UniProtKB/TrEMBL annotation:
The keyword Calcium applies. The gene is Apcs. GO terms for cellular component: extracellular space. It is found in: Secreted. This is Pentraxin family member.
Amino acid sequence: DLYRKVFVFRKDPSDAYVLLRATLEQPLQNVTVCLRSYSDLTRPYSLFSYATKAQDNEILLFKPKPGEYRFYVGGKFVTFRVPEGHGDWEHVCASWESGTGIAEFWFNGKPWPRKGLQRGYTVGTGAAVLLGQDQDTFGGGFDLYNSFSGELADVYLWDTGLSPAKMRAAYLSLSLPPALLAWKSLSYEVKGDVVVKSRLRE
């Protein structure tokens, strides 16, 4: 249970990452990823990377520059432009549904205009799920200059879309539905220079 804790990625650039263990028995038609990050990086970095042997960017949350997020499903991405960070925590939730090909993006508890992405696609199983690096090959192939440096917390992955009320609940750290990956019951392995610390501020 990592409640009120954070992963601190100490170095920049870095080869460190956190490997997450999720039991994924069936392919995903719907996905929601939420997490909170705190960083002063201005170069590109990867937050959440879900790769399969067939597709390295099966699900990816990537920040190419300040004020911009990319959400990948099956190797294709949509871009969401957000206010420039002011040295504060940023909470993002990205969800996608295969049936409509709609991608939703929530930034600090508010929805951004929805976009179209990979209608009819299915996200594969047998995944390597990493925080802090962008996989260019299954479980590896890192570009150090896409590595994350800073603090990460409140990481979740669901195989459903979340209602607007639950999206806001994720931002406010309220109770949430059972997840494939949940911050309060996370099975993980630290690889390299990442330290678990208490959160300094809300």
